[in-house]
C-alpha cells in the first residue's frame, strides 16, 4: 500500500509513463487506485510521429500491469520521507512474520 | 397523521374552518413533535453521525477502477488492447471487472514504415477487462484530424503491411527478451501477460 499512498501524493503533478510496449506518455496524474492503475489528463505521446494512435485522445486510463516505468518530477518526491516509510513498512512486515 | 391517511387525490377537498385549520397547522409546524432544524443536513444520515463540515469529503469511489470507467460511458473512446490493437468507438457499458462494451467501433491499423493508416469497421465489441491496456476519451474536435506526417490509405493496402509489422515487432520483442533472460532479467512478453 506504500506506493499507492505515494502516488496519491503525486496527484496533479506532471508525470511520464513508459509502457511495456515502448510508448511513453506524458500527462497530469489525475487518479490512482489500489492496482496502481493510473489516470492521466491532457496527455501527449513523447514520440508523436512514431505513435499517432493517441493523437486525438485527451485523457487516458492506464492499467497498472502494462506500466514499465513512471518518471516523476524529482521536486515532488521527498526521498527521505519515502525511505523512512519503506523502512517502517519493512519493520512492520518483519514484526508480523515474527508474531 | 390520521388526517393524511384519509386523504385521497380523487376526493373532493374538505370544507374547512380555515382559521381553525391554520391555527392547527401552525401548531403542528412549530409544535414539540417537530424535530429541531438541523444545521448539518447529513447529520444522523451519515455513519458515525457528525461530519466536520469544513473538511472536504472525498467521494468514496474516487480511487476505484470502475469510478474511472463511469466517466467514459457514452463517450467516444480509444481502447488499446494488450496485443497492441487500437479500437475506437462509443463505450456503452462496463462492469466491476473492467469488462466494457464498445459500439460502432473501428479498428485502427497503422503501418509505421510508410506512415499509412486505415480504419476497419468492426461493429460492437465486448472486451474482457484484463485485455485492456489503456482506455481514453477522444477529443471530438480533433477526431477527424489526420496525425502529422501520416496518410490515410485503403484497408487492403494497410492490412498486410500492418500484419507484417506486428509480427516483426513481436519477434523482435521475443528476441530481445530471450537475450535479457540470459542475463537474468524476467521477461515481460511485451504487454501480453
Short description:
The complex is a heterodimer of chains A (about 100) and B (about 190). With about 100 residues, chain A is of the alpha+beta class.
Task: Report on the architecture of this protein.
The complex is a heterodimer of chains A (99) and B (193). With 99 residues, chain A is of the alpha+beta class. Chain A contains 2 helices and 5 strands, in the order αβββββα. Chain A has one domain: SH3 type barrels. The model of chain A has no long low-confidence stretch (mean pLDDT 89). With 193 residues, chain B is an alpha+beta fold. Helices cover 27% and strands 25% of the residues of chain B. Chain B has a 6-stranded mixed β-sheet. The mean pLDDT of chain B is 79. The chains are: A alpha+beta (99), B alpha+beta (193).
Key features of this structure:
heterodimer, A: 99 residues, alpha+beta, five-stranded antiparallel β-sheet, B: 193 residues, SH3 type barrels, 4 helices, elongated, cytoplasm (chain B), mRNA processing (chain B), mRNA binding (chain B), LSM_dom_sf (chain B), Sm_dom_euk/arc (chain B)
Write the layout of secondary structure elements.
The complex is a heterodimer of chains A (99) and B (193).
Chain A (H helix, E strand, L loop, with lengths): L1 H8 L4 E6 L4 E9 L5 E8 L11 E6 L4 E5 L7 H20 L1
Antiparallel strand pairs in A: 1-2, 1-5, 2-3, 3-4
Chain B lengths: L1 H5 L11 H13 L34 H6 L5 E6 L4 E9 L5 E12 L4 E12 L4 E7 L12 E2 L2 H28 L11
Parallel strand pairs in B: 4-6
Antiparallel strand pairs in B: 1-2, 1-5, 2-3, 3-4
The main sheet of chain B comes to: 6 strands, mixed
- SSE class of chain B: alpha+beta
Tell me, rounded to a whole number, the average pLDDT of chain B: 79
Helicity level of chain B: 25-40%
Amino acid at each position: 500500500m506504500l506506493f499507492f499512498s505515494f502516488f496519491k501524493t503525486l496527484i496533479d503533478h506532471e508525470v511520464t509513463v513508459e509502457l511495456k510496449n515502448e510508448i511513453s506518455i506524458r500527462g497530469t496524474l489525475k487518479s490512482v487506485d489500489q492496482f496502481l492503475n493510473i489516470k492521466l489528463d491532457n496527455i501527449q505521446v513523447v514520440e508523436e510521429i512514431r505513435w499517432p494512435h493517441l493523437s486525438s485522445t485527451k485523457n487516458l486510463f492506464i492499467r497498472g500491469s502494462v506500466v514499465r516505468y513512471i518518471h516523476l518530477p524529482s521536486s515532488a518526491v521527498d526521498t527521505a520521507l519515502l525511505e523512512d516509510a519503506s523502512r517502517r513498512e519493512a519493520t512492520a512486515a518483519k514484526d508480523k512474520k515474527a508474531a | 397523521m390520521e388526517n393524511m391517511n384519509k386523504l385521497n387525490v380523487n376526493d373532493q377537498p374538505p370544507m374547512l374552518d380555515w382559521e381553525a385549520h391554520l391555527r392547527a397547522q401552525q401548531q403542528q409546524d412549530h409544535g414539540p413533535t417537530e424535530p429541531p432544524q438541523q444545521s448539518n443536513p447529513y447529520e444522523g444520515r451519515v455513519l458515525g453521525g457528525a461530519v466536520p463540515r469544513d473538511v472536504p469529503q472525498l467521494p468514496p469511489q474516487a480511487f476505484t477502477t470502475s469510478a474511472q470507467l463511469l466517466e467514459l460511458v457514452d463517450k467516444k473512446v480509444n481502447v488499446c488492447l494488450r496485443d497492441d490493437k487500437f479500437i475506437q468507438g462509443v463505450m456503452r457499458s462496463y462492469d466491476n471487472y473492467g469488462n466494457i462494451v464498445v459500439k460502432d467501433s473501428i479498428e485502427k491499423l497503422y503501418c509505421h514504415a510508410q506512415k499509412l493508416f486505415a480504419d476497419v469497421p468492426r461493429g460492437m465489441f465486448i472486451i474482457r477487462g484484463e485485455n485492456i491496456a489503456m482506455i481514453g476519451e477522444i477529443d471530438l474536435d480533433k477526431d477527424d484530424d489526420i496525425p502529422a506526417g501520416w496518410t490515410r490509405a485503403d484497408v487492403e493496402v494497410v492490412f498486410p503491411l500492418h500484419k507484417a509489422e506486428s509480427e516483426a515487432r513481436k519477434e523482435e520483442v521475443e528476441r530481445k527478451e530471450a537475450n535479457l533472460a540470459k542475463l537474468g532479467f524476467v521477461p515481460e512478453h511485451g504487454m501480453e501477460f
